[in-house]
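Input for the complex:
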Amino acid sequence: MSESMTADAPSEGQEETSASDVVVETRNLSKVYRDFWGRQKVNALKALDLEVKQGEIFGLLGPNGSGKSTTIKLLLGLLFPTSGQALVFNKDASDVSKNERIGYLPEESYLYKFLNASETLDFYGRLFDMPADVRRDRVNELISMVGLEGARRRQLKEYSKGMTRRVGLAQALINDPELILLDEPTTGLDPIGTREMKDLIIKLREQGKTVLMCSHLLADVQDVCDRIAILHRGELKELGRVDSLLKVREVTQLQAQGLSKEAEEEIRAIVAKDGGELLSMENPTTTLEELFLNIVTDSEARPGRRAPSDD
Amino acid sequence: MTLENAIPNFADWIFDALRFLPIFIVVFAAAGFFIGFLVSAVRRGPVEGFYAVAQVIGSAVVDILNTSIRRTLAMAMLAVQESIRRKVLVAFAVFVVVLLFAGWYLDVKSDNPGRLYLSFVLTSSNYLVLILALFLSTFSLPTDIKNRTIYTIVTKPVRGTEIILGRIIGFMTVGTAILVAMCLISYMFVVRGLNHEHQVDGEIQLTSTELSPDGSLQGLTTYDAHHRHTITMFDDVSGETDVVMGHHHAVEKVGDELVVGPPQGALAARVVRRGSLRFKDRSGKPGAGVNVGHEWAYRSYIEGGTLAAAVWTFDGMTADRYPDGFNLELNLRVFRTHKGNIEKGILGSITIRNPNTGARIRSSEPISFAAKEFSIDRQFIPRELKAIDSDGTVSDVDLFEDLTDQGQLEVWIQCSERGQYYGMAEPDVYVLENNGNFAINFMKGFIGIWLQMLMVTTFGVGFSTFLSGPVGMLATLSTIVVGLFRQFIIDLVSGTLEGGGPIEALIRVLTQANLQVDLDIGRFPTLVVKFLDARFLDALNVITVSLPDYAGFSTTEFVATGFNIEPSLLAMQVIRAFTYFVFVTIIGYFFLKTREVAA
Ligand SMILES: Nc1ncnc2c1ncn2[C@@H]1O[C@H](COP(=O)(O)OP(=O)(O)OP(=O)(O)O)[C@@H](O)[C@H]1O
Ligand SMILES: [Mg+2]
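Predicted:
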């Protein structure tokens, strides 16, 4: 009896973790924007299949108008899919209750200009039904985190772009969310702000949170993301781990140290057999920028779906 | 007092309403489901469409159950802050400025300045508040969608119900604050505007008039505020003035001098018992009164010196209600075919009759009175009356024992002067129960305005869930206009008005055919036109009947004419307004729920 229970329990628990492991899932997700008369205007997203797992920092890349924001809006239920499904925490994106565990930083900070920073955060705290004392602590904590202590009583209409962005970020974190959706988080931030934003994203991962962000700033993405997807004209072009995507498999670079004489000789012999000289041995990495540009020019030349190489 | 539609009995009304409500809810839900299904079936096909509708309804239930007060109030507070930022207080400033100027423009020489002042403050508060509600409610949500601030709202665990209710509560909070301020200022404005003083002018002398031939002590007041009064002393120390411009003064001896008190009666809240009216024609047979030629005459007229009579039947006339007798108030119009003595009223008589035709005593002796035009005549009908027996002898009778049948009695009014006419409508004669508190009645008038504001706000927010700001505003404005001209539209639809439906009317205009001739476009086209017109009018009828009756909600007329707003009328209005509130909120919720806010 007790044996069967102990035998069952872990397998059940495992199944649960593997099911809840996937935080965001899109199945064949497509979006066609239509005008008032139902005529097709833009085919913004075409049959996107994605999975974002718990604890991951996932980057959506793509040129302007490639459907990144559309994907995020579909995941939030701000848009309804034309076909396919968007699931967040295994719930349909139109389910309001999922929002309890989500934070969202929109492309631009769409906030009420007539409120000041603490009123804004307090207001959003109320929307999470947070009691007054919890709200007060959380608001203070976030305001000092985004560095707006000095401006907390000023109306947002007086704020600079970067300051508004910071309030926007604080707003997205008010409920200590498990999943954070960031639409171009570093736009408008100064270099220090950008650095802080990246540090924050990494800190969020350390806390076990999942982050889905989209950005054009490839360096930022390269620094923080575990996995990326590259979209172009609504189609998924590339999907995989950042480190493996940036490996150039056709080239091998060797650079060795502490090899035994024999081993070294052996390698040297192999290289020398073809008339080469070994300097070092490794796969060089390209920059994300190069990868990105390659994919975009390539897909412009040969439109259509590319089988993404996920691993 | 032109109260054109009788107020239904509250018990009957609520009984009907409750019986109708379940049917209405079923029809409402079925229609909603059907329309939702049609829309979504067109988009996704019938099976998927059905599931989509079912899912929306399911999540609606979840949303309603999870609606949180804190979130709703947070949305309400935001709406208040937004209103303040949009400078709603300007509306209030406009009101104050209007009142300041009104002090100069209002005609203080009017026959009834009280009525004028009251209509003015109530009407201006009413319109200002409705315009304010219109602008606040219709632009808020569309602005949020346009500015995309809604993105940060709907990605929080906020329910559609909270977004809508929060806005309604917020705007109503602002509106209520402004309305309360308007109410207080209006009250002071009216009271101060009507206040004036008189002194006794000259001597009090013994005079005799037609109505008191034995003579009474009379005098005049000084001429102040565009009028003077005649004083009649009851005895050496107290007296009263006559009613001029809708008010009178008490006169009292203080020390050696007679002092005229402050104006009374201009601000009244009469609690009245109304009867039902029928007419007897000039030969005494049941019939209608005559029309003296005004096109839209609301009143009917009875001819003097004939058997023509206006008969009111009152219920609930019992001795415990009126232990000493009752006050009858008459608000008759006079139509003179010859001038007569312009200074004097037209003489008439009041007779109390037992409606039971088998009763031993059928009728009291006529009580004569002179109808003063443009002012209310009050006649006290005492408990002890003289009556004429069936055999013609005059005896003393008791009002309730001998002339009342199960609480019912008839009041017959006849005009005694040949060639002169009395005009009346049902609300013009009533039994005065007592005088209610004017301030409270004034407040009730403002509650009526508040309820109108609630409906405008609800409709405004409702429309704004799927229309852009300006379009939503026009839509809401249309509901107000339809509500105000409801009776006209219903008459149009029920065919009381000539000229046919809109297409027929258009053809008549184009072909310059007058209203009497048949359409000259062939038999079949005529049928088609009439059919389309009929369907159009049906649709119009449904829309009109289902929109709020703003005219009916306006109780300011009661306050201005000095009648108490019956609690039952107020209760009906509250129930109606909140019913609209509930149903429009539900409709708005579904529109918001099925809307792509980012599209
Ligand atoms: N509300 C809308 N109505 C019609 N078309 C839209 C709408 N929003 C986006 N689109 C179109 O959909 C496509 C994808 O837009 P989206 O905003 O998702 O791009 P993006 O990848 O976020 O671009 P960016 O990097 O510039 O933010 C574009 O062609 C855009 O014009
Ligand atoms: Mg974008």
